[in-house]
């Protein structure tokens, strides 16, 4: 269980993704930086002079919609103005579709795309640093660690090349190296070449990355260091940096983390987000729905399931998308809903053929890319989501600006 329980994340409103230590740079030369010239930690309203840029993708999606009132409305917003919005959460930074995840560059692009909240998943280093990395043991697939022989030698499972019977294998964890060593790495797109006979060939992104539930067993946690220690260190990192709790949206897949924050750090706990992935199968889905009232009763205010939990198909040919029992129950018990992850499934005409998780509850109703905004519109107008995680923040920002969505408001949880 260490794999999920040691994964803590936070989303920080309108600032750098960095807490304790920055993510590796993609280009080795420049120093770690936040939004140079725009904002820094502790400045309450940093966006006034921040210019965002959405690129062509939102226009492509609107153009591909069939005629509807929604399409007309979205077309009417083509010329902006567009502003940063906390409705848009930059998933692993916010430009993960094309830029290495959890990197400074990814987060800066997410902000440029209007993501008002930027996510950093944290992992622990050998000297108890907290760094932005989705999985404890994904360094071989998300960084160039194998090209640093001195660091590659420290990997929990050193590289073995592919041969006639076995694929290439290697596991490198953040707990294998110090924070200073981590900061010498460069990020890369998550993926690897299972046929690789050399570490250079292993870098090619053919398969998506490490399975954290399999690899995290190799993480070397400091002796005596517990999940509770981790949950406290995590919050204290923000406190020690003087970051206003109102700007910090702590997240965890592990409910006891949230209960600890509610008990010991209520100003953070009140707006902490419970990431729920407990309902992936038809039998566990019903159990996940049944648990929602008790989660709310324990003080959790915000729940974040994947958006396939929130939608279902209806109508004689399954062509209508409607809120699911999870969505209506969460709303009925007073939980606010954030959901994930938009722009992580490739072309919509292929989601069924390629068995894309996020559309799994509405496969029959989804046929073309233009329906992306129909799905988002149902999540906003019918489910009532407060914010959306996305791998390409521009798409969500366009919609949010068109409908005047500002995202979750910290004052609602005080
Ligand atoms: C949307 O794109 C698909 C795939 O390119 C195309 O087949 C379809 O005709 C487009 N729909 C509209 C309304 O433009
Ligand atoms: C192939 O690789 C595996 C795992 O690294 C190893 O156990 C096996 O002996 C290798 N086979 C040959 C023929 O080298
Ligand atoms: C994957 O690795 C093998 C063996 O090193 C190499 O021959 C092959 O070209 C690599 N694949 C790609 C796409 O680079
Ligand atoms: C509609 O979807 C349900 C569940 O996904 C399935 O059991 C049913 O066969 C579908 N109906 C049609 C007409 O495709």
From TrEMBL:
Catalytic EC class: hydrolase
Keyword Signal appears in the UniProt entry: yes
Residues spanning the signal sequence: 1-20
Reaction equation(s) it catalyzes: a sn-glycero-3-phosphodiester + H2O = an alcohol + sn-glycerol 3-phosphate + H(+)
GP-PDE domain location: 91-368
Gene3D superfamilies: Phosphatidylinositol (PI) phosphodiesterase
Keyword entries, A-Z: Glycerol metabolism, Hydrolase, Signal
EC code: 3.1.4.46
UniProt key word Hydrolase: yes
The family this protein is said to belong to: Belongs to the glycerophosphoryl diester phosphodiesterase family.
Protein name according to UniProt: glycerophosphodiester phosphodiesterase
């Amino acid at each position: 269980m260490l794999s999920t329980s040691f994964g803590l994340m936070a989303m920080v409103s309108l600032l750098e993704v960095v807490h304790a230590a920055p993510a590796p740079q993609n280009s080795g030369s420049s120093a770690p930086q936040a939004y140079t010239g725009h904002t820094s930690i502790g400045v309450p309203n940093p966006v006034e002079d921040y210019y965002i840029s959405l690129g062509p993708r939102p226009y492509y999606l609107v153009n591909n919609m069939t005629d509807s009132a929604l399409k007309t409305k979205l077309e009417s917003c083509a010329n902006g103005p567009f502003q940063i919005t906390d409705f848009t959460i930059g998933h692993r930074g916010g430009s993960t579709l094309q830029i290495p995840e959890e990197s400074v560059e990814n987060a800066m692009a997410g902000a440029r795309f209007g993501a008002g909240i930027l996510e950093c998943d944290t992992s622990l280093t050998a000297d108890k640093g907290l760094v932005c990395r989705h999985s404890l043991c994904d360094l071989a697939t998300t960084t160039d660690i194998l090209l640093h022989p001195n660091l590659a030698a420290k990997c929990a499972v050193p590289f073995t090349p592919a041969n006639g019977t076995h694929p290439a294998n290697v596991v490198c964890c953040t707990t294998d190296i110090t924070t200073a060593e981590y900061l010498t790495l460069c990020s890369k797109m998550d993926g690897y070449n299972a046929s690789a006979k050399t570490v250079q060939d292993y870098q090619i992104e053919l398969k998506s990355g490490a399975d954290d539930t399999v690899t995290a067993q190799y993480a070397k946690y400091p002796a005596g260091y517990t999940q509770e220690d981790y949950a406290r260190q995590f919050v204290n990192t923000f406190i020690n940096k003087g970051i206003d709790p109102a700007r910090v949206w702590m997240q965890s897949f592990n409910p006891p983390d949230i209960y600890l924050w509610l008990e010991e750090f209520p100003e953070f706990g009140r707006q902490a987000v419970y990431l729920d992935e407990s309902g992936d199968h038809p039998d566990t889905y019903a159990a996940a729905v049944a648990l929602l009232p008790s989660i709310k009763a324990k003080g959790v205010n915000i729940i974040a399931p994947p958006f396939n939990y929130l939608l279902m198909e209806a109508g004689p040919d399954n062509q209508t998308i409607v809120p699911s029992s999870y969505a209506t129950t969460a709303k009925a018990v007073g939980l606010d809903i954030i959901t994930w992850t938009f722009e992580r499934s490739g072309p919509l005409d292929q989601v069924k053929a390629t068995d894309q998780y996020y559309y799994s509850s509405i496969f029959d109703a989804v046929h073309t890319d233009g329906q992306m905004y129909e799905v988002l519109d149902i999540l906003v107008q019918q489910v009532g989501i407060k914010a959306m995680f996305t791998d390409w923040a521009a798409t969500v920002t366009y919609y949010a600006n068109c409908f005047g969505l500002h995202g979750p408001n910290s004052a609602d949880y005080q």
